[in-house]
Amino acid sequence: MTEVYSLHSGRGDEYKLQFTTERSGFIADDILDQLNAQGIEVVEIGLARVKGQNITGHKVLRQIEECIADLMRRKPNVILSYFCDFIHLVPSQKKDMPVQEYRSRLFSAMFKRYVSQQQQFDVCDDEIRIDGVAEPFFFHVIYHRQHLHYAEMIAEGHAKDFGKPSDATSE
Questions:
Q1: pTM for the structure as a whole
Q2: Backbone region of residue 51 per phi and psi (left: phi > 0; alpha: psi in -120 to 50; beta: other values)
Q3: Tens digit of pLDDT for each residue in 7-44?
C-alpha cells in the first residue's frame, strides 16, 4: 500500500507526504513479520519538500495532521513509523540542537496539539530517542492505545538496530 499526498502552502511551497508499507529497512523484517502475523500493518511516513524554501507554516502542518488522523481512523490495525531526517537544516533558535531533535520536537508538539483538540481520538505518539554511535536518532511510532505492546516491539528493535554497541568486551 502506498498513498501520496501533495500539500501546498500559501507561499507556493510544495510538500510530498507519503504513507507506505514498502519495507525500507528501518524496521527489522522479523519484527514486521511478527506484526503482520498479528494483523498489524506497519506504515512508514515520508515527508519531503519538493518546491520552495519558506518556513513550513501552520496550514501545511495542519494538512499533515489531518492526513495522519484520516489514515489512523480508516485503518484501526495500523501503526505508523516516522524517522526524523537530518538532511536539511531547519530554522532553529538553538544552534546547538541537532536537526533531528528539532524535527522530533516539532512533530511531537504538532501531534499533541492535534490530539488535545480531538476528544475521541485514541492515538498515541511515542518518540524514540536512540543514542547512536556518532549522534542520537529520533523515531516516532504512532498507534492506537490498544497496540502499545506492538509499538514497544518496534521501539526495542530500533534500539537494537541503531543504538550504540554494548560496552561488553568479547572474549
A1: 0.82
A2: beta
A3: 999 999 999 999 999 988 788 899 999 999 999 999 99
